[in-house]
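WARN no homologs supplied; continuing
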Amino acid sequence: MVGMNYNDPDAAFAHGMLGHHIGAVDMAEIQLKYGKDEEMLKLAQEIIDAQKAEIEQMQTWLANNPDAAEPTTDTKAVQQAYAEGMDAMHGEMMLGIADPDPDMAFARGMLPHHVGAVDMAEVQLKYGKNEEMRQLAQEIIDAQKAEIEQMRNWITAHGGTVPSA
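OK structure emitted
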């Protein structure tokens, strides 16, 4: 949600996705601590590895790219798109992580979290102008769509309910 406080669409994406990735790494570390399923443990480690590298990239980019002083023509649309996406994601995540099985909680919580990241990245592709952030957004979409499919399949195979997100 922090990204909604920025005027420049690229800065909004980087700030918002930075917080989003930190949350995903935290969730994945909990999975490594409590999970038992090899596939979900492997996925958690892959999420940590990929997103820590992207966190560093965004931190470096943000240090060199300050926010616009004034709202741009797209600021309001970007903020609205992020707000709508985050509201939908949050409810599904809370339902998912409440599952008593740690592996299922991870998959059912991370699934809408990833869907939210893809939504944010699509907003970036629509409004962002910076080529590095646009490329990062596309990489996030490509990687996380594959992981979304993996989690949906795993949840179904293990008798869980796939969140609607």
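The mean pLDDT is 90.
OK
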